[in-house]
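Researcher: Please predict.
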Amino acid sequence: MSTLNGRGSPTARPRVLIIGCGFGGLAATRALAGAPVDITVIDRSNHHLFQPLLYQVATAGLSAPSIAAPIRHMLRGQRNVTVLMAEVSGIDRQQRQVQLSDGQSLGYDYLIVAAGATHSYFGRDEWATHAPGLKTLQDAFALRARVLKAFEQAESTPDPALQRACLSFVVIGAGPTGVEMAGTLAEIARHTLKNEFRRIDPASARVLLLEGSPRVLQALPPELSAKAEAQLRGLGVELRTACRVVGIDADGVEVQAGEGAVAATERIAARTVVWAAGVAASPLGRMLDVPLDRAGRVIVDGRLHIPDHPEVFVIGDLAAAQSLQSDGRTLKPVPGVSPAAKQMGAYVAAQILQSLRAPQGQVLPPLPADAPGAFRYRDYGALATIGRKAAVADLGFVQFSGYFAWLFWLFVHIYFLIGFRNRLVVLMDWAWAYWSFQRYARVVAEPVDAVQKAGG
């Protein structure tokens, strides 16, 4: 395969185009540092976000710069990288071109699509207005304002029913994000805001965690799920499993428990609803015009290629990939978690380097997921924090919960944060919060009339 630049010169270096600078895109970019390629990184935002701690920004525990870093600054020392803050509007696989929303077209010899995921409301997109999810910094800022304004309106209203609705917080979905959000909301109500209001008692706030399956944290073993449930209840979270949300509006949610004739529907008045129940793949997957799974993820082979185009890789939450397990026989889907995305990014970078060493830079052929050399996901375990001194950890060879799991979760997340400054700032913030129960990032940059209108 000869590589051409925009003038058709065969002497240009191979062009690697990376869409998305999340965990997968960043890992691929860094793995190609020093390689004889020209890399262009395209992202809609100008920052890389450490999403596992995004809920901490939403709940006023951390400020945005603690978990986000400018992409240009992070890659400033990598001379073979050009960063563009832009939005992709189309992908032409035949011409090997990516179109941007500003009209530009960029050619590539290798394309890595790492666009991530967005919220999924299971066909009820109208719920998004009343039950925001948490994927971006904008989501976190909006949710933080909504939470804090709920307490403010409860303080200012003379209506007892409205006051109860303002002090009711519903989290839908009991995966890691939902569990962490519910536990943190309970801590805010019972500790952070203590003695700050005169007409209400923040500790009387009701925090409900709703889950459609029989238990929380379905990805963890049942015994750890049970311990997580006990810790949630210890924090004051009201937990409901095996119930379905059937309606969401500005005044609350409707939930249904049971099936058929025994199904019972209940309405819960709440002015703050958080959606943590599902994700859908980025719409960019449809631009590739290849087979998708039910969640909209791109079905890839063992090398993370798309069909018939081995120069195109899809990684991270957008990829429907499978990995051979340690028994050497079982294939399982690769989970949509940050360690998997980073491993995928490093893997496709290695595939590109191997292709460059092939005669005339030929791309590598497709590979079944169970073949030698195919991508292998290494599962190093799962962690979920529930609140202060409360967490669960499953490292495969050992499982534990409580205070030591919380400490382990804390140091793991600090270790994987970007840059020394971020690690130091987060460590100081968490130490202060641990001893004082305070959350300093509680500024709402909206006038009082916006606060009053939030209640409808």
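Model: The chain is about 30% helix and 25% strand.
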